[in-house]
Structure formats: C-alpha cells, structure tokens
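new request in #modeling-help
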Amino acid sequence: MSELLDILLYIQIALCVFCLYRIIRGPSIPDRMVGIDIFGILVVGICAILSITTGKTFIIDIGIAWVILSFIGTLTLAKYLGGSNLNE
Amino acid sequence: METISVILIAIGILFNLFGCIGLIRLPDVYNRLQSATKCVTLGTCSILLGVLFYYGFIDIGVKALITIVILFFTATVAAHALVKGAYKFGVKLGDKSVKDDYKEVKK
Amino acid sequence: MKYIVLFIFSLGFWLLLTFSLSIQNIIVGVVAALLTVLFFGNLFPDKVVKLLQPQRYFWLIVYLFVFIWECLKANFDVAYRVLHPAMPIKPGIVKVKLSLKTDLARTFLANSITMTPGTISVDMIDDLLYVHWIYVSSTDPEVYSKKVAGRFEKYIKKIFE
C-alpha cells in the first residue's frame, strides 16, 4: 500500500511541472500569477500525502500555514495587479 | 480504512491532473483560472479527506478537516481577487468570447 | 455581545487547531483570542441572535449537501471541457441581479458561484453581480440570472436573513 502512495506522491510532484510551465511561458503577468496561486494549493496536497507516507504528523501543520500564507501572497499580488491602494 | 483513503487520494490527484491540463490548454487567463481553481481545490480537499480517513478523528484528522474549511474560503476569495486584478490590468477576453457586460462599468 | 461571541469562536478555533488542553496552551489561546477581538471585533456581524435559531442550522446542512453536489458537477463539467479535443467553450461576462441584502449573505453567494459549474464572480457593484461564465448558453437576462444564482439564493436567504 505504501508503494502506491509513493507513486501517487510522485505524480503530484510532477503536476507542479505543469504550473512551472505556465509560470515560465505565460504570455502575460496575470497568467504567471495564476500559476503561482495553483502551485501553492498543490504544495498543500504534497504536505498531506507526505504526512501519511513518512508518518510524521506535524507536516499537516505546515500545510495549514502554507494555505494561509499562499492566500495572503496571492491577495497582495492581485492588489498590485489592480494598481490600487492596499486599503480598498 | 486504508483502502478508502488511498482511493480518495487517487481521485484527488486525478482531479488535480484535469485542473493542470486545463491550465495548459485553455486560451486566456479567465478560463485558465476557472478550470484550475475548481479542479485543484476539490482535488486537494479530496486528498485531505483521505488523510482524515487514514488517521480517524485524532488531532491530525481534525487538522485536515480544518484545512479543508480554510482552503474553500481562501481559494474562492483568491480567485475572485485575481480575476478582478487581471481585468483592471487590462487583459482582454479571448477571441472566442461572446459577451462582455463589465466593459461599460470600467469606463 | 458580539465581542463575547467572537471571543468564544476564536478560542474554540484555537483549541481545535492545537488540539491539546494543557494550561499553557489555554493561556496563549486566551491572549490570542483577546487580540483578535480587540482588532477585528467591529467587523463581526451585529445580530448574534440569529446564531440561536435552530432552523437556520437545518437549512445550513441542506445547503451543504446541495453545495457538495454542485461542486462535483462542476468538476466533471470542467473535465469534459478540458479533455474534449475541440474544447467547447463560449466565454463571456454577464451581469446578474441580486435579491439578497446583507453583506454576509452576498459573500456566501459569491463564494458559492465561484465553485459552481462554469462560473466565477468578478465584481459586485450595488445590486449587480458580474459573473464570468465559461459557456454562455443564452442571452436573456431572466434565464441566466435564474441559472447562475437561483440555485443557491433561496437556501442562503433562509440561512442568513
């Protein structure tokens, strides 16, 4: 059963390459930001699978922190993109 | 219980795969954001549900459940902010678009 | 009154998040919850009486099931559009008239619209919600208002208003 989980983990890591493709090749700046946002959510999935395969339960805490930090980062980038002040 | 959790994780990764293919194939920012946000959010929720089934209702399972709730709210709000920011930045709708009601508001 | 409710919520959330009942943990949680109430207390909704009405919780559970069903439908819809060789998309931005009044209800409606098949909410100005739709199936405002928002509006009205 754990070999299967390892394979799934590798597939999930390989999915990040799709996001990296969009970040590198994206024709405009918003395309790259979409890539960064999705990348952050995929990393949470990696954390969740790692917490099963390694048996270390603290990794899910890293996932929670990652969700919130990625959310704040995306909001800041989107505000920068809209060209407005941060107090709107 | 382990079998159910592995099946849930596999389903989640399948949805993630669909979302990432959409990120590559679809033509403009708004469509990419649609497919990526929906599929990847639900796929990650499915993976976290798999963690909950694997460990049961001890501390890590409850934390996974909390992560699902946080993820739903943050992913939708982030997508909303990105769409609005991209429109203000001046990205045009793709060639296939048929309707744009938002244009007269921005004038 | 609303400050006390917010304090109880944030302390409960902290205890769920750390999942231990030692005395140090509870002290840190109380301090963190007090700081939260101090900074963000005035953003909490005013009418806390609504939290004590049981029929709202019943409708919340019904709404959760409807929401999960729509989410699954959304995913298969997107998967179909992405994997189809010709990509049957016809995107556009449409405006939808809202009948909800309170801010919290509108936030929930916008979030639900983002997770449902083919739609993502762009902006909200006064009573109009602008929605990006991946397949605009009709040009009649009545029809698409019902198609986009009508599924959730009746439940959300019962829960939050």
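bot summary: Chain A touches chain C through one residue (CB under 8 Å).
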